[in-house]
Specification:
This protein has 11 helices and 11 strands. By secondary structure, it is an alpha+beta fold. It folds into 3 domains: 106 residues, Trigger factor ribosome-binding domain (Alpha-Beta Plaits), CATH 3.30.70.1050; 97 residues, Roll (Chitinase A, domain 3); 157 residues, Trigger factor, domain 2 (Orthogonal Bundle), CATH 1.10.3120.
Length: 436
């Protein structure tokens, strides 16, 4: 057992001694295991003398022996004291020489004990909103647009908002053409906002064969600095104008998208919108509960976990900073005090959710993981890459499992708190940020 211990809050520093004899005995046991597999000229595997093994492998065997005996001392200690480590301990063996007693020091932080949390004393707001039939009609209109056909119009037809214009264009700043400002037979949906403000508006009203100039000003925050804020002229020629013909919303169209009738399709849309409202409302409830937990629960934090969190955020900040060529602006400056406070908050909430979830038997099932991977994969053009990534990267899978666990723990907590309803408009539900 340790001969000296120093405890400050959650930080422990303990000192122990391993006798030279115990070290050699442990090292010899490891050497004998080496000897069962080692191949050396003149000896059969398993028949290599210990003295020969010591000559070749003693240093590495001693290293393993020290780790083994220090870990045994530490495990006995934390078992007796009923402690839980918050990360790996740091070992100091300064001054030790082979063949002598090994005095060592271990420093480590332990996890705090979560106080009882009376969730029934907490109240969060549940935002509720009535389903607006205009949203259903908007969704039906989007379905019609997705099934539209673009019909080429004759030379007398003037382009309207929503039409597709097939155009050539070439851009100039003054009399000089600029790089990237030219295209042939480009298909531009008028009113889509795909081009800089004012460009599409000046195409409206023109016919096939028209050649004209479009005059615009690039936005001041335009991504190309050589163009930002400058006046530009585009020489434009219209080759085609195509009008989008929308199909009638009837049972036949509903069947094309997998429903028996227009009414069945509407019910499906209502269900999806209601689920979106419910999830958005729950997201805000989660955020409010996290704020309450961060404010109300008093918990000492292991300093090493806070430092790890802060280091990761600093590395991410530095990586992002490399890509802004020294002109990142005020918002990109590293604020140590602010970032440390946020790191402490994240560590605190992580510990609370982990402790409460474990105590209340929250589990992440195989289905939970599969659904999360499927949801992420669906956002990418090649879902197989996402599946392969998680199959080959167990650390990433473990992180995903941890995120799911925290979400399930938080949702389980919400079943214990009180709620008060607040009627809001739909747009208010969707303007908030994701869970903090």
């Amino acid at each position: 057992m340790f001969k000296k211990e120093k405890v400050k809050d959650l930080h422990y520093s303990v000192t122990g001694v391993i006798s030279a004899q115990d070290l050699q005995t442990a090292a010899d046991e490891i050497l004998m295991d080496y000897g069962k597999k080692a191949k050396m000229p003149g000896f059969r595997p398993g028949h290599i003398p210990l003295s020969v093994l010591r000559q070749k492998y003693n240093a590495s065997a001693y290293g393993e022996a020290i780790d083994k005996l220090m870990n045994k001392d530490l495990n006995d200690y934390i078992s007796e004291k009923k402690l839980r480590l918050a990360g790996s301990p740091k070992a100091d063996l300064a001054g030790w020489e082979m063949g002598k007693d090994a005095e060592y020091t271990l420093e480590f932080d332990i996890l705090p004990t979560l106080p009882d949390i009376d969730l029934e004393k907490y109240t969060v707001t549940k935002k509720v909103t009535k389903l607006d039939e205009k949203e259903v009609e908007k969704a039906l209109e989007n379905i019609r647009k997705s099934r539209s056909t673009a019909e080429k119009q004759d030379e007398k037809y003037k382009a309207q908002n929503g039409d597709t214009a097939v155009i050539d264009f070439k851009g100039f700043i003054g009399d000089e053409a600029f790089e990237g400002g030219e295209a042939k037979k480009h298909h531009l949906i008028l009113g889509s906002g795909a081009f800089i403000p004012g460009f599409e508006d000046q195409i409206i009203g023109h016919k096939v064969g028209d050649k004209f100039d479009v005059n615009v000003q690039f936005p001041k925050d335009y991504h190309a600095e050589n163009l930002a804020g400058k006046d530009a002229r585009f020489a434009v020629e219209v080759h085609e104008v195509r009008k989008h013909i929308l199909p009638e919303m009837n049972d036949d169209l509903a069947k094309q998208v997998g429903h028996e009738s227009v009414e069945a399709l509407k019910e499906h849309i209502r269900k999806i919108i209601s689920e979106q409202y419910e999830e958005a409302s729950k997201r805000d409830m989660r955020n409010e509960l996290l704020d309450l937990l961060a404010d109300k629960v008093k918990l000492d934090l292991p300093e090493n976990l806070v430092e790890q969190e802060l280091t990761m955020v600093k590395q991410e900040h530095d990586r992002n900073h490399e890509h802004c060529d020294g002109d990142c602006g005020k918002d990109h400056k590293w604020d140590e005090k602010k970032e440390r406070k946020e790191a402490e908050r994240r560590v605190k909430l992580g510990l609370i959710l982990a402790e409460w979830g474990t105590k209340n038997k929250v589990e992440v099932t195989r289905d939970d993981l599969q659904q999360a991977v499927w949801a992420e994969a669906s956002r990418y053009p090649d879902p197989k890459q996402v599946f392969d990534f998680y199959n080959k990267n167990q650390n990433a899978l473990a992180m995903l499992r941890g995120m799911i666990f925290e979400r399930k723990a938080l949702d389980a907590m919400l079943t214990h708190v009180k709620t008060k309803e607040k009627a809001v408009k739909a747009e208010e539900l969707f303007k908030q940020a994701e869970v903090r």
